[in-house]
Amino acid sequence: MYHSYNQGVKYLAITRFVVFFLLASCSSSRFASFESKLESAPLNRSFHSLVVFNIDKQKEIYNHNGGRYFTPASNTKIVTLYTGTKFLPQQVPALKYISQNDTIYFEGTGDPSLLHPYFKDSTAIRFIQKYNTVFWHPYNSSEDRYGPGWAWEDFDTYFSPEKSALPLYGNVVTLFNVPELKASPELFSDSVQVKEAKFRREEFQNQFYLNPKIKDTIEVPFVTDMAISQRLLRDVLGKEIAVVDEFPQGPKETFHGIPMDSIYKRMMHKSDNFLAEQILMLASSTLSDTLSTKTAINTMLDKHLSDLPQQPRWVDGSGLSRYNLFTPNSLVHILKKLHNEISQERLFQLFPMWDATGTVDTWNHPGFQPFIFAKSGSFGNHYNLSGYLITRSGKVFIFSFMNNHFRVPSHEIRTYIFATLKSIHERY
């Protein structure tokens, strides 16, 4: 009885929310009534905003709290995507190097794809292998291992690998125990114990624990340092790697790897935090000899995002930090820039769809083709969705629907969001 009552209240609230949204969109004189009803819904104890922009008419059709600051979570990856498109070429800049006969001096650019468990790219490895003598310059980054404001207890989780100038294997150890215990890269095989433990790795050392009940393959970040990277490089190259303090005199060349769009798509569709952080480091490699997320962010804010309606507080590429603050107005503005500067076909391939291939596990709306191309952003008590919406008549709208500090289950927030966006799709 209690469950049925709650379900009834929930769907009644959704219906009222959508009805009052439609009334509000018909006449500005009804906005006050809409705002009142919106605040009386279960969202009234949280902080929320909706901004909708009609691209065809270049006109904002609705704005509620659009100028207020929200914690964006992974909506930050939209800004990271835009940063990549402004600074990076079509192919990832994998290495910077100087070659002298059969000797190569190289340094990392932050390219995340090298030997990555998903990309499995070894293009740069094959390039380096052509040289008999290899020198590596590892001192070209000002980055800490984590971004500011990241949660310390995430150190053993797959979504929180350390940042580095020369990431290898995605900076994670891939572990599996069926039919026998194996680790990739093999360097860590002797550092894995099959046992129950509070964490999957010791916080400051590469000692790993695999719960015997886990039968699936798991990824655990490893502690990165110069010695570990040198050993991994030696193993995969099959030759010694010498470390040098500085490059020889002369201009550096850039060796390019896989298409950047494959990295962007993986970041957006899987909300991959590691790829997002490394994209900002990659961007900084085109601006300075020292890799720095802060350099990429500051250059974007000064050069390409100086016209945002409200200037953000932006501290990382992934949105893991709760220090990030963006307004929905600013996210809509960035989404407009992306739509203006990138073909819609390419753009909609980079953004996840609200269907079983992207944002939700199942598509439960027969008679409707997926019509939302958007990036979600969530962590505890926060759920945001920003992107593009195709209406029934084929118009393209930009929207940002942000929700912070709620205490209801997040699936109720997602239900609100979809019901509202579906009503806009049907009406226009």
TrEMBL record:
Sorted alphabetically, which InterPro entries does this protein's record hold? Beta-lactam/transpept-like, Peptidase_S13
Q: Which UniProt keywords are present, listed alphabetically?
A: Carboxypeptidase, Hydrolase, Protease
Q: Give the residue spans that cross the bilayer.
A: none
Task: Give the species this sequence originates from.
Answer: Flagellimonas algicola
Task: Please indicate which superkingdom the organism of origin belongs to.
Answer: Bacteria
The record ties this protein, via SUPFAM superfamilies, to: beta-lactamase/transpeptidase-like (SSF56601)
Any one GO molecular-function label of the UniProt entry? carboxypeptidase activity
Q: What is this protein called?
A: D-alanyl-D-alanine carboxypeptidase
As for family, the record states: Belongs to the peptidase S13 family.
